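Appendix C: a fully annotated inverse folding record. The material below is reproduced so that readers can follow the format used throughout the book. The structure is listed first as tokens, followed by the designed sequence.
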């Protein structure tokens, strides 16, 4: 099962975090600033380097997603 991935395109970098598909409560914690970067349900696109707050939020979401997968023994 996939957990996350990064894809580099010509004009942007995409960060895919698959636990967002399976955890509605986790999706509900995304800030408006990060939601502006969302493409679909679990993908964030960045054309420039995100600021420290957005990176910290992505780290928090990634940690929470990892914990949710680990709690279900999916890892």
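Designed amino acids, in order:
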């Amino acid at each position: 099962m996939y957990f996350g991935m990064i894809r580099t395109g010509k004009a942007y970098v995409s960060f895919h975090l698959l636990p967002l598909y399976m955890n509605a409560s986790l999706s509900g914690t995304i800030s408006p600033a990060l939601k502006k970067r969302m493409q679909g349900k679990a993908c964030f696109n960045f054309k420039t380097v995100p600021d420290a707050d957005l990176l910290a939020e992505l780290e928090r979401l990634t940690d929470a997603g990892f914990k949710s997968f680990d709690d279900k023994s999916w890892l």
